[in-house]
């Protein structure tokens, strides 16, 4: 749950306090936990990699959310991961397979498939208003990335 820094299933003032302690360097949490406290865009390229991205502003926004219910918070992990075609939070060979299925028509392509359209230049704007163009070149690029070949994925 976004802003649930202590992972207790609720967003409370304790989460705001923990976010402030992380920001101050008083408490260290694993990167996988830190991603729940990072509510201030722009988000790092890889969610949860660096707890140093947690700032006092994150703590302030979480506290404001607890008290007023607004603004709605958005966490890093809520952003689609470039190349993550199956939405499991990881870029692996299954994502390459999912992109290949979309490219050859064995799976439908929808406007939210921007994370599969990774090869530049992009044929269409990936803003949710147009269907992204997912090709076998995208599937190949994701497969190479998943296998550790130094290639870049670009979903922006």
Instruction: Please count the helical segments.
Output: 5
List low-confidence stretches: none
The H/E string reads HHHHH
Radius of gyration: 18 Å
Category by helix and strand content: mainly alpha
Q: What is the CA-CA span between the terminal residues?
A: 25 Å
Shape assignment: elongated
Number of DSSP strand runs? 0
The percent of residues in helical segments reads 25-40%
Q: Quaternary status of these chains?
A: single chain
Mean pLDDT: 78
Number of domains: 2
Largest sheet: none
Beta-strand percentage? under 5%
Please give a structural write-up.
The protein is mostly helical and 156 residues long. It has 2 domains: 66 residues, no CATH class; 54 residues, no CATH class. The model has no long low-confidence stretch (mean pLDDT 78). The chain is elongated. The relative contact order is 0.12. The chain contains 5 helices and no strands. It starts with 12 loop residues before the first helix and ends in a 10-residue tail after the last helix. The protein is 33% helix and 0% strand.
Based on the model shown, name its key terms.
156 residues, elongated
Explain the layout of strands and helices:
Elements: H1 13-24, H2 31-34, H3 56-68, H4 93-103, H5 136-146
Helix pairs in contact: 1-3, 4-5
Summarize the structure.
By secondary structure, this protein is mostly helical. Helix content is 33%, strand content 0%. The protein has helices at 13-24, 31-34, 56-68, 93-103, 136-146.
